[in-house]
């Protein structure tokens, strides 16, 4: 009978080890960095900066704000948007969402205020 107990204890230990390994591998693959978000107001426009950024600075300029996110410069005035020097004219009823992806790229989404700026940026 002692050989039967040893076999059962051994199988129990192997089964427990397999379960632990499966759980550890499953949790490692799903771990993701947390996202951050901050909203600012320029005139009647809401500007949201969100995503996986490490460093963000904000400063006021004469008629808007300048935000530097992981080296990308975003300048928002009452009627224009500039991302890394590329200018775009904004309509008075548009909000702006700036999203920084995991790999550091910047995606800008202009959203009419009727839809709301709380809409998720593509990831």
Describe the largest sheet: 5 strands, antiparallel
**In percent terms, what proportion of residues is strand?**
35-45%
- What level of helicity do the residues show? 10-25%
Please provide the ordered H/E string of secondary-structure elements: HEEEEEEEEE
Distance between the termini: 60 Å
Radius of gyration: 25 Å
What is the approximate shape?
Answer: rod-shaped
Provide the low-confidence segments as ranges.
Answer: 116-123
* Strand arrangement, major sheet: 3-4-5-6-7
Q: What's the total number of strands?
A: 9
Mean pLDDT: 81
- Which structural class should the secondary elements be placed in? alpha+beta
The number of helical segments is: 1
Description:
With 123 residues, the chain is of the alpha+beta class. 24% of the residues lie in helices and 44% in strands. The chain has one helix and nine strands. It has one helix at residues 2-30, and strands at residues 36-42, 45-51, 56-61, 64-69, 72-77, 80-83, 86-89, 94-100, 106-112. The strands form two sheets. It has a five-stranded antiparallel beta sheet with strand order 3-4-5-6-7, with no helix packed on it. The chain is rod-shaped, with a radius of gyration of 25 Å. The model is unreliable at 116-123 (pLDDT under 50).
